[in-house]
Structure to design on (480 residues):
């Protein structure tokens, strides 16, 4: 049985303010639960139906719930056996990573886009994402679900990007429509790629700190590419 | 005033079956409306609030509606001034395009992914998408919105992909996790890139018809990339 107060508590975690105060976040589904259990992230509590077992048996704070109870606390249209409450890791900003490739997000708003960007970073071995303070919260349940588990492996640090770029020698690249063709650049081993807001792009004070404005050559007529797609293409080219 | 019957008719267009019977589809918002008006697609009717005017003045079947009326017929959370009913173009399959680059989709299910794929095609000048019969309907309003207007410029043809590949000499490439590193391939001027279903990938009988299995090198731990992101990366590399 889930008490009324408990259900209320879980529902409150769909609000950023409550996640910040309580220091926890919600992740759902079999795949995400297993990824989190096997990661460095601490698990607070697991609500699971009787037919769910973790991939790796471990002493875990599991509370068994019925399908109806799970549906009540779930944020998904189709709840998937398990809901995890995990402790939000907090990463301090210690400068843009040197001798490696990182990603900086300047005001990404769409939770699906942010989740996909975290998943892309994880695919390409990018372990740090620097995000402007007005970027969507990476512990928003919609973001967490869209990462498909990559939230357990990529560090997202919120900071002032313009200042961060001003204080580094790491070469910076900005995805800008008026930039140079990306094919003019050879792969780099050290760099930070800046991706801007879905409609407004990279803000002026951040652009001023960028070393190389680059763009993906367009041969058709679409006005722009989705932010996550553009990031994927630039990362695959630049950080190969 | 929108009559009850008219509202019912518009709502029915959110169902594929009705779109197929009636031969029309719904597109919403200022940008999409302008793109459609300027395209080859025929406009059946436009419902718009008083403050909307087309970018290019033209004789158009505009019916003025109030904000409340627009909200009633809209499929968007935040209706954006105009809703267009347009005639569904129907393209016959005449073989995989020769001497150019095309995209083939094998069972893409998510409307957002399909819309983003159409937008990617449009960016890179790919004018034809071949889609398996079980791919999501490109005139689903969610797909139309996600194309950001590219639906007006890219032809999507539904057919049996496996047969289509069997009957062509155009070199085919398939996005497969077990494929060869894409960097082993030089850019091509003629080709068809096959992207599979979000969870199941490309089906067996289609794989059997593919000339080159290629993949995006992974350096991290994510199990997969989003289908649209993978398509974008492969297209940018292969069709540059």
């Amino acid at each position: 049985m889930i008490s009324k107060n408990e259900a209320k508590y879980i529902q409150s975690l769909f609000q950023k303010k409550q996640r910040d105060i309580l220091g926890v976040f919600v992740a759902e589904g079999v795949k995400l639960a297993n990824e989190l259990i096997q990661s460095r992230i601490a698990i607070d509590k697991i609500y699971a139906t009787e037919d769910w077992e973790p991939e790796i048996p471990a002493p875990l704070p599991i509370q068994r719930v019925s399908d109806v109870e799970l549906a009540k606390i779930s944020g998904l249209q189709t709840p998937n056996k398990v809901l995890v409450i995990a402790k939000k890791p907090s990463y301090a900003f210690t400068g843009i990573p040197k001798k490696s490739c990182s990603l900086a997000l300047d005001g990404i708003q769409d939770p699906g886009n942010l989740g996909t960007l975290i998943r892309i970073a994880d695919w390409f071995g990018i372990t740090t994402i620097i995000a402007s303070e007005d970027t969507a919260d990476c512990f928003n349940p919609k973001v967490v679900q869209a990462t498909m588990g990559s939230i357990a492996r990529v560090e997202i640090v919120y900071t002032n990007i313009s200042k961060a770029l001003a204080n580094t020698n790491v070469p910076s690249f900005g995805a800008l429509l008026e930039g140079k063709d990306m094919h003019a650049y050879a792969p780099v081993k050290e760099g930070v790629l800046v991706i801007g807001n879905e409609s407004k792009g990279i803000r002026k004070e951040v652009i001023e700190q960028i070393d190389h404005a680059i763009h993906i050559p367009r041969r058709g007529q679409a006005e722009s590419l989705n932010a996550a797609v553009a990031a994927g293409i630039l990362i695959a080219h630049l950080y190969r």
